[in-house]
Please model this.
Amino acid sequence: MFEKYVEFAKSILQKKENEEIRKLVEEIEELSNKAKKMLEDESEDTGDLIDAGPKIRENLRRLLELALSKEAFELARCLAVLDDGIVKDRAKEVYSRKFENYSSLIDELISMGVLTERTLTLRFNEIAKEVFEDLEEKDFHRLAIEYYEKLADSLDSRSHLAYHCLKAGEIERAFELFIDTANKLYGKHSCIDKLIEVGEKLIKHMKDDDTRCRVIGTLGNLYLMSKRYEEAETNYKTVLNYYSKRVKENPDYAKFVAGVLNNLGNLYFAKGEHKKAESMYIECLRIRMDMNDEDGMVSVLLSLADLYMIEEDYENAEKCFHDALRIELKRSKEDKSKMINVASIVNNLGFLYSRKGDLEKAEKFYKEAIRLYSELSKENPEMLSNLTTALSNLSSLYMSSGNVDKAMNVLEAIKEHWDAIPPDVRATFYLNLAKGLENRGDAKAAEFYLKAGALGFMIFRNYGITAVNFMHCLDKAEQLGDEILKGDAKLIKSAIMKVYYGVKSGLPEVSSYGKRGEALIKAQKGEVVSIDINDEVDMVVYVLANELAMQR
Model:
């Protein structure tokens, strides 16, 4: 239970032989052994067990005070409030103003094992960090604010900045950073847990009901992104109750009621409770129509369309898409930027008709989306990625309907914008190209099935999105490839099953394989592996080799 604490304490003793330190190490080990025995004996007297942790940490604090110079100890206390992976150059800029001998103090902390030095960062020993975090002061967070202000602006750095503003007592700034950063999120992100921590602490500092509800509602959004559905629902219903009362006194609150209804619709949609989601969306739409809020109307119409698509209620989905399209076409006459939404809705209608099996209409709408995105991309190069998506949809339509030559022609058009292709579209491109080459009897099909499978797996691994059926693609690569490619595909597939799906057996015996297969076999044996990353397949092999090595 406390073995890591003992191990760390002994490592300090090895570096700094001292009778007081020795006694503290012995006390820490005795407390650890006592706690371990109580657990093994399943003792009902938990008081001593509960007290063991604080006593061990207190002894470690005293040990570190003895082992470190006073200034090094103080610097460690300051640095401990920072997130791990401290950027060396930026930390030096901030903390060298407070600590004149900053560089030598850092060297001291590294030599004692409190910090580990990487090329660009410093990392705390996890036990040391835990001990020093218990000793935080408000001034340490003010220094942390300076540090995070010097980092490149990102969602992560802004969430940490919000946290340290809160801890330093800068409540208004913490609130603004919390709301602004949370509103920039559109899915699961590494900063969400830190933002939730900030939001949960902010609530008690809010002096009026309106700002308190903003925090509670924003927390609801963060809970939803984190799939903490019960907490999200509780927060949404809390603010809905508040806004529903206020709207009776002030009609301006109707927009907030509509916003919460929309969020509840999103929550129920995510939970698979589609009837509840539909009810929330329709009520939200009614309020936004009463307000003549066209932006809001379009947003909820598209959410309803997505819901109906999932339900395969294509008739209602079509109505929602066309209603949204009419609004955006009307508005685009005065605001040309609305043509981006027009193109997106047209592309979605192409997908709807494809799903319905109305290939003629699907082709028509995809071609119109391509025309619109082509025009938009002349002034806005960011639209090229949308253009490649629409082209990819058309190539998939042709491929699925047996028009291979047309599909291959569209794939050639996609290649003209290669640098703008999003990863999921690139995976679909490889898959369609592989299908076309297979249809023509071209042996290169196996190579592109392998690329599609590799990239499809990485997208699924990193984002949880199924761009293509990556296992099917790897099966096809194994089926169609030469002996070396067959072996590599089989080993990649088996490594995925072993690492990510818990298959217990080792990698299979294969008669032939290339450098990629060899890397996986070596990694499983614990041998050092060097991989040159030139494409998506190499990247997958690199990731799998590292995972295999870690499992040993």
Q: What stands out?
A: The chain has a mean pLDDT of 94.
